[in-house]
Amino acid sequence: MAALRRLSGLFGAVNNYYLKPITSIFNNNTSLSAQKTCRFQQFRDFKTFLPWIPMEKNIAMEVPELTQEEEKLSNDIVNIINKQLETNTQSRLFAIVSIAGKQFKITENDIVIIQGYWPPNPGDKIKLEKVLLVGGTDFSLIGQPLLNREMVNITATVIEKTFSHTKTRFRMRKRKQYRRTKFERTQHTMVRINSIDVHAPIDVKKEVEGLDRIY
């Protein structure tokens, strides 16, 4: 009841402050086109205000500039990571990839089970291009939202396509003599991760980037 009273009070306030001024405008002997333009201008300037929703503040975020010490520290970290990648002395890498609308955390020689229909056939070698993050013991590379396809190379092989275990779907409506039993099996695709490679240097960007589209 308290909620209904509050809603009625809210509708009353909207009626008093918004709808009555508009109806008073239309009482004048004006043309139909003028009424439409006036109505559009009135509703365009209205903004809904609810006390439990915080007001949005249009404040531009200031990006702080790096000092010389911070810039030197970041350059040193990037050089260390590039040296590890060039000499192949980095630790075991892991990655977070997006496959068929779902995200998986993978490492080398992992087997990933993808549920539902997926076109690749057994024996196909594929490259996973939707990479969100790659990391190891000493560093992590985070995409915005995806990493560059030329920087990270993740290869995989489809090893098997099968079905899941049989699932029982039982529906019942009491006192209606309604009972239905169905058995379902979803498609499963098993994928083995062959390798996760990161190509150095990581701080070099292409002159034109972001024009290619990944489906």
UniProtKB/TrEMBL annotation:
SUPFAM superfamilies: L21p-like
InterPro entries, sorted: bL21-like, bL21-like_sf, Ribosomal_bL21
Keyword Ribonucleoprotein recorded: yes
GO molecular function, one term: RNA binding
Entry annotated with the keyword Iron: no
Cellular component terms per the entry's GO annotation: mitochondrial large ribosomal subunit
One GO process term, biological-process aspect: translation
Keyword annotations from UniProtKB, A to Z: Ribonucleoprotein, Ribosomal protein
Top-level lineage group: Eukaryota
Family: Belongs to the bacterial ribosomal protein bL21 family.
Protein name: Large ribosomal subunit protein bL21m
